[in-house]
Amino acid sequence: MARADDHADDLSVQELIEGPTEVISAQELAAVRAARPAGAGGPGPAPAEQQELSGLTDDAAGGRAVVELPRLPQAGPLYRRALLGALPGVGRRRGDTLPGVELTVAGVTVDRAHLADYDRVCGFRLADRLPATYPHVMGFPLALRLMTGPEFPMPLAGLVHVANRITVHRPVEAGETLDFSAYAERLRPHDRGRQVDVVLVGSIGGEEVWRGVSTYLGKERAAGGGERRGPGERPGAPAATAHWRVTPRVGVHYARVSGDHNPIHTSRLGARLFGFPRPIAHGMWSKARCLAALENRLPEAYTVEVAFKLPVPLPSTVAFSVGADGPGWEFALNDARAGRPHLAGAVR
Prior knowledge:
By secondary structure, this protein is an alpha+beta fold.
């Protein structure tokens, strides 16, 4: 008899590829085209596409064309595009430069029911103040649009989220309206391929209040030439502060509240297609769950940075540990039995 927790495993490859199929408007399609500023190299938008852009200005400081979208993109069609691009004979060769574009969207409001649902999934108290990781969820479709664009140097399917840094400049309340911008920077070699940073910035009234930097690794067969760490000895796992049971449904629940429907988190078949024996938890769920455990200790403004180590398989039991480090905190998530590291982080 199939368990209720296994319903996602029944998805076919076709369903994984097609997923939600909301229609993308011509305006949205045009906005995701790789619109480079003059002289940046590479094609810009065609004249008809230019007419569809809601706004295209030049960011002189960053050398990027600023494209204003009329609303946040829909994540479903973007994942469909990414999965189709991963099929043999369908994908295209990627370039060696970053997109010369910064995507922006204004007037993003908080759905309090959604916020409460997110709080429950990640373990936060129900409150009007946004957890540090919630703006990441709010602006994620904008970053996703950037990463599925034709000029992004690595295909989305197979990208590994290896680190994330969030800076909270001041608390953000649920009644406030945010403007978001997203761009890519620091494409660099790595001993297993290439890394890139995707930056998401949240502003209120022209003032930056939140910034997230996600570092992704694109694995490639040819060595990237980056710094290679020696094997060394793995340090022992720190003493556990708490043990958490991570259920099989965490991937599905977090996908629902975050919009991150990557099948490696929600489907056994999808996970196997990318080399995982079973689904794995979202890295940002792991980070959010750790911050929820530190909720009473967090200051008004801070930076929290994590390195994602080994994936958290679903289901599993993890050990959370925390210790003071000067004015801040260091924390970690490890496998409860073998002590293998899943996440290491710090609050400053």
